[in-house]
Amino acid sequence: MTIRVAMWSGPRNISTAMMRSFGSRADTVVCDEPLYAHYLTVTGLDHPGREEILTSQPARWQDVADALTGPLPGDPAVFYQKHMTHHLLPGIGREWLGRLTHAFLIRDPEHVVASYAKVRGEPTLEDLGYPQQAEIFRAFGGPVVDAADVLRDPERTLRLLCAGLGFAFDPAMLTWAPGPRPDDGVWAPHWYASVHASTGFAPYDPRPADVPERLRPLVEAARPYYEELAAHRL
């Protein structure tokens, strides 16, 4: 039976590197941000590659849910779904989520906000996805890993994560070939340059985050949600 892993992450995290890690397993297929087209359709946001995204994925969340929970060619042992928490809009039904095995990739909001501010000047709490991440965790639970822990000690953290998901760690998860992958979303040319150049997780950077003063209130608004999940991290 396939274990369907829904990995929920906010933006400006190591979510694509984590997808690479799981995609390096011989027994795993991966899916890249399957709710992105629905998110753009409902919000009307003009993201890079918008038209390509809208034609590459179903725009109805019901169709996405059916694909994520339905039959899979080849019956892989693991179906890894890279999800952005802010894509889970209020109008999306939640019942189908009960058929997935959930996991959570968190990052300290100081670092998320500092990074996000470089690409969008005035992010909101909903843009960062912390409330949505907490909502999913409260409803379904699942293992939690912090990006800082992954980068400090990838093997230890991934071993714990795999155990929490119900399957064995594979050393192949620690390295991968550089370049694009067929399972990358069509938006990859706009966002994945650093991952395409990588062959494994980047070293942990201990430098403090440089948060613009005007965005300090946003960090403080996000912090309770982060700390709620961080209390359960592996």
UniProtKB/TrEMBL annotation:
Keyword vocabulary terms for this entry: Hydrolase
Source domain of life: Bacteria
Hydrolase listed as a keyword: yes
Coiled coil regions, renumbered to chain: none
Gene Ontology molecular function terms on file: hydrolase activity
Entries under InterPro entries matching the protein: Class-IV_PLP-Dep_Aminotrnsfr, P-loop_NTPase
Family to which this protein belongs: Belongs to the class-IV pyridoxal-phosphate-dependent aminotransferase family.
Protein name: HAD family hydrolase
Organism for this UniProt entry: Actinoplanes sandaracinus
